[in-house]
Structure formats: structure tokens, C-alpha cells
Amino acid sequence: MADQPIEGQLIPNEGGRPSKYRPEMCEKMLDMMAEGKTDTQTCAMLGISQDSLARYRRTYPEFTEAYAKGKLLQQAAWETLGMQGITGNMKGFNATTYIFMMSNLFKTQYTQRADTAVNVNLTNNAVGGLSNEELAEKIKNLTHHTE
Questions:
Q1: Would you call 11 helix, strand, or coil by DSSP?
Q2: pLDDT tens digits for 92-101?
Q3: SS3 for 82?
Q4: 19 in helix, strand or coil?
Q5: To 10 degrees, the CA torsion angle through 54, 82, 76, 102?
Q6: Per-residue pLDDT tens over the stretch 52-88
Q7: What residues form DSSP beta bridges with 6?
Q8: Is 128 among the domain residues?
Q9: 70: closest CA among 120, 124, 27?
């Protein structure tokens, strides 16, 4: 138990000054991210740099887990905000700004890919003579190529 830090006690950092990391930072980070705070806002409120955030994630398993949970909570908070906006339950909602924020905060889920091209040739009434089944198959194939 000697290696467990006491609340408020600095944690030794091999080869340098003590780390500012405290186990209670995990709960504070979760609370902030559940409000939708960004990583930058969270770092500022915790009094650490982005580099420290990355280092703590590599070094402290409990911090790594808290950060992963925090990212889910952060995204859920932003999605709730978006749902309120698109249903008219929020005054002054700006969809363009919301899309920008989502695509920057949650790149893997919300970034629109410009490198995906779908070519649809509608010249000479290309789909007019197709049966419903043939048309459904073509739509299915197009959908498959855009995913």
C-alpha cells in the first residue's frame, strides 16, 4: 500500500519532477466530458497540458478507462444537443455549426468523406425500363459502394 498515493499527494515521476496526476482527476474528467466539454476544455480545467493528457492515458490504466468512458459521454452530450436542435427544442440552434463541431470532435463517426464517388448515369432514361426488383438491386449495390 506504500505505492498508493494519498489524495493530494504528488505521484513520483521516474527521472524528473513529480507528475501532477491525481487519481481524482478521473472523476473530474468524466464529469466535464459528460457535459460535452472538449479535451482542451477538460485539460484547462484540470490544469494540465494536452501532452500530459496523452501521457496520463499511456501511463495510468484508470485514467485510460475514464477517458474512454468520457469520450462516450462527451459524444452522447453533443448528440443530445443535436437532437434538441433538430426537433426545435432549442432556441438559436445552428445546424451548420453543429455539423462542423461534430465532424471535428468525432472524426471517425461524423466526418463526411469526399473521396467516395458514386457515378449514376441517368442519360437515356437508364432506370426507366427497370423492374422494381432490378431497381432495388441497383440501389442496394449503390448503397454498398457508399458505405
A1: strand
A2: 999 999 999 9
A3: helix
A4: strand
A5: -30
A6: 999 999 999 999 999 999 999 999 999 999 999 999 8
A7: none
A8: no
A9: 27
Reading the block at residue 15, the C-alpha cell is 527521472
Which residues, at least 6 apart from 121, have a Cβ–Cβ distance to it below 8 Å?
A: none
Q: Who's near 66: CB < 8 A, 6+ residues apart?
A: 26, 27, 29, 30
Give the number of other CB atoms < 10 A from CB of residue 127.
12
Whether residue 24 lies inside any domain: the answer is yes
Structural domain for 90, as ranges: 1-110
Task: Return the closest-CA partner of residue 37 out of 69, 4, 73.
Answer: 73
Reported pTM:
0.65
DSSP summary character for residue 64: H
For residue 81, count CB atoms less than 10 angstroms from its CB and return exposed for 0-12, middle for 13-18, buried for 19 or more.
Answer: middle
CATH number, domain at 6? 1.10.10.60
